[in-house]
Amino acid sequence: MALNKLLTITLLCITCTALRILPTAAFSSISIPRTAHKARISGLLMSADVESETTIADIEEITTFASKNGVDLKFTTNPTRGYRGVAVSKKDPENILGYIEGFIRPAGKVLHADKMEIFKSALYSARRENDSFTGGGTYLGPGLLIAFVCLLHGIENGCQTIEFLAIDDAEFQHKRLIRYYKTAGFEEVRYVGEELKDIPDRLVWGGCGTLMTNDIEQVLQKWTRIIRGANRRMERENNE
Questions:
Q1: CB neighbours of 70 closer than 8 A, spacing ≥ 6?
Q2: Alpha carbon 135 to chain centroid distance?
Q3: What CA–CA distance (Å, rounded) separates 14 from 224?
């Protein structure tokens, strides 16, 4: 994919009536290494609590968590089109909850996210079909689940950072995007505006907005804690 292609990343709550997707494959066909970071502790054994804070969830853990919360995840890669992660309703595979598209930059091994869309109407439909549908199991919604597997794909291919543009279509919406992404663990780099110095960035991203980034492993560690915390709460509620 040429870098001078106009790219966009859209607000998470955009309603879309139709979405054409590429053929999808199960995550089980993807080899993602388990990444573990050992904490400094005495003794030979690591407790479950310590492990939950020092490891990154793998594909199996993420897909299992998603399935428990009414979401099935799909992932594909294409040599010319990059990667694509899709979340669908477990009850209705035709109901696409959202997707993320992007590619790995040849130089610098940066995971580049082009688009993220979560379809509000699809979430409403999933809740109507299933009263227990939780919207992905965490306060960050199904977008976290899709992004998790995309970032794991980046790690597998040697990426250390992720970059994307929080598009500025309207001031209020832009502020909401920034708050969401900061809550998710990303940091602001700079604002891409309409000045001459911003032209190269606008050619890459296709518009104005805030460029955001972070270390992939750092983000995944945060998301793993969120997911495991939600999973523990679910287990306690089921045992009551």
A1: 89, 90, 91, 126, 130, 132, 133, 134
A2: 14
A3: 26
Is there a contact between 127 and 133 (Cβ–Cβ < 8 Å)? yes
What confidence tens digit (pLDDT) does each residue in 8-39 have? 333 333 333 333 333 333 322 333 333 333 33
Give, in degrees to the nearest 5, the angle at Cα 182 between 204 and 108: 40
- Residue 61 CA to chain centroid, in angstroms? 15
Note the pTM of the prediction, 2 decimals: 0.76
Instruction: Give per-residue pLDDT as tens, 123-171.
Output: 999 999 888 788 899 999 999 999 999 999 999 999 999 999 998 888 8
Separation of alpha carbons 20 and 208, rounded Å: 26
Say if residues 192 and 209 touch (Cβ distance below 8 Å): yes
Is residue 70 left, alpha or beta, with left meaning phi > 0 and alpha meaning psi from -120 to 50? left
Paired strand residues for 103 = 112
